[in-house]
Design a protein that fits this description.
By secondary structure, the chain is an alpha+beta fold. It has one helix and four strands. Strands 2-1-4-3 form a four-stranded mixed β-sheet. 4% of the residues are buried.
């Protein structure tokens, strides 16, 4: 699978989660579908986005997916 195809599959997956009520959070803010491509951007400072899957504390069900920038040390 090519890089563009992988990104498209991931975006489709995020949309499915979002449609089920799962929040997609980028840099600490709820994001719209139009902003999701941001997680694939190449940065000059070698940072990249890492996903964290956050469960509801009471039910254990997925509540949100957070993407935060991380840096190589």
């Amino acid at each position: 699978m090519k890089k563009g195809e992988e990104e498209e599959k991931m975006l489709e997956g995020l949309k499915r989660y979002h449609d089920k009520g799962i929040n997609i959070v980028i840099d600490g803010m709820d994001s719209d579908e139009k902003d999701w491509n941001k997680i694939f951007e190449v940065r000059e400072d070698d940072s990249f986005y890492m996903a964290d899957f956050v469960p509801d504390e009471d039910t254990g069900c997925l509540r949100e997916i957070r993407f935060d920038r991380v840096y190589y040390s």
